[in-house]
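Exam revision sheet. Question 4 asks you to relate a sequence to its structure. Input first:
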Amino acid sequence: MQKNAVIFDMDGVLIDSEPYWRQAQVEVLAGFGVTATAEDCIRLTMGRRLDDIAKIWCQHFSLDIPSEELQVSIMQAVVALIRQHGEPKLGVVSLLQTLQGARVKIALATSSSRPIIEAVLDTLNIRKYFSVVCSADNEEYGKPHPSVYLTAAQKLDVAANQCVVIEDSVTGMIAGLAAGMTTFAVPDSIDDPRFAVANGRFSSLEELEHHLIKTGEVKGVMVR
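Answer key, structure tokens:
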């Protein structure tokens, strides 16, 4: 079945923001007197919703502060880093232009909060490509629960089995698959065995674009 829509994750797919997330968490937590490493961030919080991240750290370090306070501090730090340093990942603009040219419906479904979404769309100048933007903040559960992807499909007015999801994290991949969508992974490490359950693994968005053009898997995107 040809797919009619493509739903993008944001962090790690459109922008290499994971280092910003790790830097923000490490620096903010240091301000509260505890030490986390980048490896801790990857292991415990990558792909998670911000409120979940804050709760995880509060529990992990037994912090005697409201998780909401930590949440706001991390968000502000991430937004500042994105606005100062953010650039689109290689192949982002080309893939978005190809999909738009084929009149494919395009959505964004991310675990990030609205201020971070706005910072990414503005800094990368890609807002015009997305007809639907969904944050897991508006869902009862964040990824790996599929709700944010199902909401995006509903807003696009496209059945879940007609959607392609593009993800970089295991958490997000599980969410896409649980939504019943064709889920392609573009992870940092293509050899990571956890991504074997994805419908396809690609080393870059450029490779993924070539795959879509070659296979015609997405309606209107074909060999040219």
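Marking note for examiners. The chain has a mean pLDDT of 95.
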